[in-house]
Amino acid sequence: MEVRAPQARPQRTSRRDAANGASDDSGAPPPPPPAEPRPVASWKVELSGGALAGLIVCVAFYPLESVEARMQVGQLTAGAKRSLAGLVAAVARTEGARGLYRGVVPTATGIFINMGLYFALYDHLRTRLRKTFPATSPPSSLSPSSSPSSSTTTTTTASLKPPRPTMGFDLVAAAVSGAACAVIVNPFWVLKLRRITAPPTPTAAAPSLLALTRSIIATQGIRGIRTHSETVGGERRLWRGTLISVLGVVDGALQLATYDQMKYRLTDERGVFPAWAQLLAGAGSRTLALVATYPYQLLRSVLQQQNCPYRGVLHATRHIVSTEGVRGLYKGIGLNLTRSIPPAACMFLILEQFRLAINGAATK
């Protein structure tokens, strides 16, 4: 009797397997993998994040800036306490909320343009400097066990901490960026200060922003060239105080470079830079920069006020030092610290959260 060997059952193939087999047999290339999301360019992130953070902080803290500008030029409300809360309350009682927010439009516009351009230019210039001078750039922050010669597999973990920032490159990049932005947005600061320090009149409303701009251009021209019949206290040009603003880029450069140094030290090996550290770095960097460069800010406010009695930076400096001493150059620094530290901390917090949101969305 012949015994036949059991025949193997034919294996069922699904349509997907059949299609894959057909493609393999025919030699057709496999379908390409899905395209990975492209990260957003860093300068675009800095441009958008800086502009957004500056605008939010400007609107939220503008009453403090308005009061500080009044104190710098000597327009203290009669009977007001020399505290920030007392000055804000005094202005609110006499002029209302509109008085506290007088000049907010040119300020918010200038801040929006300034901070966006500032952070974008800073990021671009710093990157170019590091590429141009790679020998002096800091190495990437990798753990010692992440070298290729390591034979163990349990400790070959690279640190996610960003590379150590170079103080010199950061200062140069921030100074150049600040100088460019100072020239571009200086007219907004002049208009802001003129709006804030314009004395309110009971019979007529304060001139509008457009009327104030037309008045300055009509009397001085777009370049602000003064005529022979002008007095020292006459109409001031839109670019009044630009020189001292450009010289004052050290303030922003020192703040930004210090912030990056503090950010590096407060970031752990996993690359985590927590929110409390963002606030601390923003507040600490602002304090150091303000104490070091406050006299220039006071001189800029004095020179940009209406009916300025000084001919220039040197004349104002000599007069203030001779009449009030060196302490006169630091008049109002306590209020300035109270006014500027919280906005700086909040601005860097918003900027860092914006960076995390954009970069996180790009990697999904």
How is the secondary structure organized here?
Blueprint (H helix, E strand, L loop, with lengths): L14 H12 L15 H31 L11 H17 L3 H29 L34 H31 L11 H12 L21 H6 L1 H18 L8 H30 L8 H12 L8 H30 L2
Helix pairs in contact: 2-3, 2-4, 2-11, 4-5, 5-8, 8-9, 9-11
What does this structure look like?
Helices cover 63% and strands 0% of the residues. Helix 2 (42-72) runs antiparallel to helix 11 and helix 9 (275-304) crosses helix 11. The chain has helices at residues 15-26, 42-72, 84-100, 104-132, 167-197, 209-220, 242-247, 249-266, 275-304, 313-324, 333-362. The chain has a domain at 241-331. 33% of the residues are buried. The longest helix has 31 residues, at 42-72. Residues 141-157 and 223-236 have low confidence and may be disordered. The protein is mainly alpha-helical and 364 residues long. The protein has eleven helices and no strands. It comes from Acanthamoeba castellanii (strain ATCC 30010 / Neff). Solcar repeats lie at residues 41-128, 165-265, 273-357. The chain crosses the membrane at residues 100-121, 171-191. This is Carrier superfamily protein.
